[in-house]
Write a structure and sequence with these properties.
This protein has 368 residues and is α/β, with parallel strands linked by helices. It has one domain: Bacterial extracellular solute-binding protein, family 7 (D-Maltodextrin-Binding Protein, domain 2, 3-Layer(aba) Sandwich). The chain is built from 14 helices and nine strands. The strands form two sheets. Strands 1, 2, 3, 4, 7, 8 and 9 form a seven-stranded mixed β-sheet that branches. Strands 5-6 form a two-stranded parallel ribbon. α2 links the parallel β1 and β2. α2 packs antiparallel against α10, α4 packs across α13 and α10 packs parallel to α14.
Length: 368
């Protein structure tokens, strides 16, 4: 009997062992699938911005991406694309609309004016008296109104960073009075209000993409351009421009924008982290611009640029009719909100006022 039972018992044990192995393999496979699903739950977003990575907008786009990754424990990754490698800002807007781009740092609300003409208000010359004024406006009722317009157009505003006050540079002459603009060929973004401003000032405006600008200045296709100090420095325009006139004629924000499709990829908690971090970076990016301006102006002077101030009142008188025509066509609600945000105490020394620093350096440049 024992000789018969032994083979049977061995067979039974073998079957049990095989079953156990199958169960273990199944458990291992299940665990691997769970791990794979966990990895698949991470989200990778793309962020585009038009300027060099050494520009404050580029620096804080990179920092924003790093912090989002850390604060979501690696669940949200952001790939930052600098220098307009994904296209012009108009193309970035189209990509946001199509959902092929998730995030963009767009240098100026006026980039959206083809969708809603009211958003051209930021381009009205001298409507912002200082960076402090502009920041108060974007952080207050005006910013909320702009965000509402953009939301209705299909964009989620995360925060209003800064591009800054725009100033004239050229190779013909220092610009002090409006008459000094006569005959100078300026590169301009294809923005109707800005093109009209140049016309009213007697200058020639040549619409041109930003990526073409340095070569155009180098070859003499255009004589001048207008941009904030940080951008003039970051793009080495001092190599191809002789004169810098501190006009502060237009302030441009930098709108950190997301597509609704991108936001839908995130949990409510992740969306909050995105918004909170964007606001945190806004404060730091603006502060960097404020702190850099005096330093960068001094460096531009050292590199050979002649720096001067302008007669703002004379310029304002020439271009103010643009305000009236804008209000007639688009209403004056946004204009009123901007003017309402003027600092109640513009002489507060503790406030970060770009124009005050610029004027100080400009005075030193003239005195020497």
């Amino acid at each position: 009997m024992s000789n018969i039972k032994t083979p049977a018992l061995s067979a039974l044990v073998s079957v049990m062992l095989l079953a156990g192995c199958d169960n273990q393999a199944s458990e291992n496979e299940s665990a691997q699938n769970d791990a794979s699903k966990s990895n698949d739950s991470s989200v990778t977003l793309s962020l585009a911005q038009a300027f060099p990575n050494k520009h404050p907008g580029g620096i804080y786009s990179d920092k924003f991406a790093k912090l989002i990754n850390e604060r979501t424990d690696g669940a949200v990754n952001i790939n930052v694309h600098h220098n307009g490698v994904l296209g012009s800002e108009a193309e970035e807007i189209q990509q946001l609309q199509a959902g092929s781009l998730d995030l963009a740092l767009l240098y100026g609300v006026s980039n959206f004016q083809n969708l809603n003409a009211k958003l051209g208000v930021e381009e009205l010359p001298f409507i912002f008296e200082s960076s402090e004024h502009a920041r108060r406006a974007y952080d207050g009722e005006y910013g909320k109104a702009v965000s509402k317009i953009l939301k209705d157009e299909g964009f989620e505003v995360l925060s209003y960073w800064e591009n800054g006050m725009r100033h004239f540079t050229n190779n013909v002459r220092p610009i002090v009075d409006p008459e000094d603009m006569q005959g100078i060929k300026f590169r301009s973004a294809e923005v109707p209000i800005r093109l009209k401003m140049f016309e009213m000032l007697g200058a020639s405006a040549i619409p041109m993409g930003f990526t073409e600008l340095f070569t155009a200045l180098q070859q003499g296709t255009v004589d001048g351009q207008e941009n904030p100090i940080a951008l003039i420095h970051a793009n080495n325009f001092y190599e191809v421009q002789d004169y810098l006139s501190l006009s502060g004629h237009i302030y441009n924000s930098a709108v950190l924008t997301a597509s609704p499709k991108a936001m839908a990829k995130l949990t409510p908690e992740q969306q909050k982290i995105l918004r909170d971090t964007a606001e945190e970076m806004k404060v730091e990016e603006r502060q960097m611009i404020s702190e850099q301006n005096a330093e960068l102006l001094a460096d531009l002077k050292e590199k050979g640029m002649q720096v001067n101030s302008i007669d703002k009142q004379a310029f304002e008188k020439v271009v103010h009719p643009l305000w009236d025509s804008f209000a007639k066509e688009n209403g004056d609600e946004l204009i009123k909100l901007i003017l309402k945000a003027k600092p109640s105490n513009a002489g507060n020394a503790s406030a970060p006022q770009e124009s005050t620093k610029a004027a100080s350096v400009s005075h030193d440049a003239q005195a020497s």
